[in-house]
Design a protein that fits this description.
This protein has about 375 residues and is of the alpha/beta class. A hairpin with a 4-residue loop joins strand 6 and strand 7. The chain is flat. It is built from twelve helices and seven strands. Strands 1, 2, 3, 4, 5, 6 and 7 form a seven-stranded mixed beta sheet that branches.
């Protein structure tokens, strides 16, 4: 306990020394000024704070104004953000002195709120003018830049001119009509007894479900895109901007293969007790013959997103998935007492299930490929 008290005293002493360190020796003059001003609120006669406040305030103002002058004469695209940040720091220093009666007696602080507002207006006007330049262009990238510039103008000055209306116009100009085609099978699918029922349905369903999902995701207008089937585009006389081609390649659904193997198991069981009551044990053995039927289906889906106006490839990706099916049954010879619950489950075929039909396999493959395809499309149309 004594050691703890001694440690606490040392810790408090060190903290006190740090707090009383000469404000003029600190590297962060802005922070030192704020701390000195607060110190005078608590102790108006603190000598270090009294000496430091006038010097620190003069230094802070001179430093920020010098930076502002440098930024104004430069060509940095972010110069207005930097100038605004400097004026905000000057206002922080002004408020620190104004709110401290002790510091206010020593310094007549300068209010830079007018200069700060003018800097924000200049920044908003610069972004607004640049936004109009991009808005006058016809390509999607320019529309996206215009949208961003008008948004930044409104961030500087909320409700600046007609930036909100121009931003909405830029969004409309950036919208692309995206046609998603049905899945094309280029896999030279080889069928070994599964049948063809449900195959075409799965391909068409993939396309239709994808479009419905993309439309629902875009209800918040986050993505500047409209999604249609090729049939909807023709029916509504919509000229597509982009096309998404879905091609199934290298699909393989092999016929189930069965192989058998033996597994020897044992168990130590109690067969009785001796005259002293101690257990008598015996090891019993059995051989399990396991018949394992399995196959692994694979599929690759190629997703090509192309700009029809420029014939430019927006994205070219291939997504792969595997589906593994396994069924086990078995028999045994030997002592049944050697078998555990897992062994009996195989022998009694507790988990027996028929081999899945082709449409079920396609569903499993599509289910895992689907979110990858959807996210790739969303990423391509995202801002």
């Amino acid at each position: 306990m004594k050691n703890f008290i001694l440690f606490l005293v040392i810790l408090l002493t060190l903290a006190s020394c740090g707090a009383s360190k000469n404000y003029l020796e600190r590297s962060d003059a802005d922070r030192a000024l704020i701390d000195a001003a607060k110190k005078l609120d608590k102790n108006p006669s603190d000598e270090k704070a009294l000496a430091a406040v006038p010097i620190l305030y003069k230094s802070v103002v001179a430093s920020h104004l010098a930076k502002i002058k440098s930024y104004r004469s430069g060509s940095d695209v972010a110069r207005w953000d930097k100038i605004i940040a400097e004026y905000q720091d000057l206002q922080t220093a002004y408020n620190a002195v104004l709110q401290s009666s002790g510091a206010f007696k020593l310094v007549n602080p300068q209010n830079f709120s007018t200069e700060l507002l003018e800097a924000k207006q200049n920044a908003a006007e610069e972004k607004y003018a640049a936004g109009n330049v991009y808005l006058a262009k016809s390509d999607r990238e320019s529309a996206k830049k215009a949208y961003s510039l008008f948004s930044r103008a409104e961030k500087y000055i909320p409700g600046y001119k007609d930036a909100q209306q121009l931003k909405e116009q830029a969004y409309e100009n950036s919208i692309v009509n995206v046609v998603i085609t049905p899945v094309q099978d280029d896999s030279y699918f080889f069928n070994s007894g599964f049948g063809n029922y449900g195959y075409n349905y799965s391909n068409e369903y993939f396309q239709q479900n994808l479009i419905r999902d993309l439309q629902n995701t875009n209800n918040s207008n986050r993505y500047a895109a409209r999604f249609l089937t090729d049939w909807e585009a023709r029916r509504n006389n919509v000229t597509p901007d982009w096309v998404v081609d879905l091609r199934l390649r290298n699909m393989s659904i092999p016929f189930p293969f069965t192989n058998s193997y033996n597994r020897r198991v044992s168990n130590r069981i109690q067969t009785g007790t001796d005259t002293s009551g101690k257990g008598i044990y015996q090891t019993v053995y059995a051989t399990i013959t396991v018949n394992r039927t399995s196959f692994t289906a694979t599929a690759n889906m190629e997703v090509a997103i192309r700009d029809l106006k420029t014939n430019r490839n927006i994205s070219m990706r291939t997504f792969r998935d595997d589906f593994r099916w396994l069924q086990e049954s078995g028999t045994f010879t030997g002592d049944s007492r050697a078998l555990n619950n897992s062994d009996w489950a195989i022998i009694n075929n507790v988990n027996y299930r028929n081999a899945p039909r082709q449409e079920e396999i396609l569903y499993e493959l599509y289910r895992d490929i689907y979110p990858q395809v959807r996210n790739n499309i969303l990423y391509s149309v995202d801002w």
